[in-house]
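User: Can you recover a sequence for this backbone? Please restate the input before giving your answer.

Assistant: Of course. Working from this structure:
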């Protein structure tokens, strides 16, 4: 019985840790947001250059990307900004960096 409880507790803790890790870190995303070297940027710009302190991104985490931008998701929009203004290379959608940026941008919501 003790073994079953121990295994159950370990499984729950592992699941919680995995979900928290997969969700991304807003604190790490903020660092990336302010990093002019993000994704191999070819200039001295960062996301913060165009969006100081996340300005005008308050709705970015919840908006509908199906019209107007050419993006289908927040991740697509982030990559459009990385490849165009920053002149960097698109991040894989499942990368830790992308998940951290998404977590930070979603944290800006009101």
């Amino acid at each position: 019985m003790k073994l079953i409880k121990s295994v159950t507790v370990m499984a729950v803790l592992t699941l919680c840790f995995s979900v928290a890790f997969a969700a991304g870190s807003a604190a790490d995303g903020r660092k990336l947001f302010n990093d002019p070297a993000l994704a191999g940027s070819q200039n001295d710009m960062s996301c913060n250059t165009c969006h100081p302190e996340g300005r005008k991104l308050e709705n970015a985490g919840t908006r509908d990307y199906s019209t107007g931008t050419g993006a289908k998701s927040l991740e697509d929009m982030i990559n459009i900004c990385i490849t165009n203004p920053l002149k960097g290379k698109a991040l894989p959608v499942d990368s830790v960096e992308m998940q951290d940026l998404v977590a930070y941008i979603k944290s800006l919501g009101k």
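That completes the design. Residues 15-22 have pLDDT under 50 and may be disordered.
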